Amino acid sequence: MITLYTFPEAFGLRNVSPFCLKVEMALKHLELPHRIELQADPRQAPKGKLPYIDIDGQIIPDSEIIFEHLDEMTNGALFGQLSPQERAQGTAVTRLLEDHLYWMMVASRWLDDDWWPNVKAGFFASMPLPVRTIVGPLARRQMRQTYNLHGLGRHSLDEQKAFAARDLKAIADMVADTGYVVAGRLTAFDFTTASMIAGLIDNKPATWLTRLADEQPALREYAERIQAEVGVYGRVDI
Ligand SMILES: N[C@@H](CCC(=O)N[C@@H](CS)C(=O)NCC(=O)O)C(=O)O
After folding, report:
1. What's the pTM value of the predicted model, to 2 decimals?
2. Whose CA is nearest to atom 10 of ligand 1?
């Protein structure tokens, strides 16, 4: 039995982390028996981040490392059918999504003063009051520092929106012809892509990034279709 550790639901999302959702999609797609364990505090995770999985006592953190492990375990059921070019395209789009667009998703939630109350309610409301008043603002300050270190945080909001719009357009163009991100069929890279798009489109209320994504209707259609095809949805109200 595999246990997948994810965050409790928040912002209308039953699986609030795109990294956790993509692993859930892969486990379902591979028909591997699994259960989900909720963990509110990622500091308890092996790398201080979720997801991680426990396979009969073997702890594996990080969605990309988990995918490699699942692929090995299933004799290539995740990546085995891909040509080197398809795998390269998938790796490139993963970097765009997870090392660029993802950070703007985080900023659109955590660093927007109008949206910040939703983060407080979603992540810190269950803590006792005195702890909550310290931990929330501290975590937000760390997020701001991380965003600055990444580099995106040094740009104006308008510049960030322009970067995000180009990322979103690139994804919409990638899926325009065949409906899938690489290889013209469902692959593990669709789990990576659809989970990220679903996370930023379905979080409630809308963030500035949600509104930008809605300018590319093909993205919502794509994320819906992939979630339906796999049978795993990120949002609560399905
Ligand atoms: N490279 C990691 C990224 C995972 C990640 O960034 N998880 C976020 C949630 S979406 C997290 O746990 N953040 C907690 C923190 O940084 O304190 C993966 O692919 O699993």
Report:
1. 0.97
2. 17
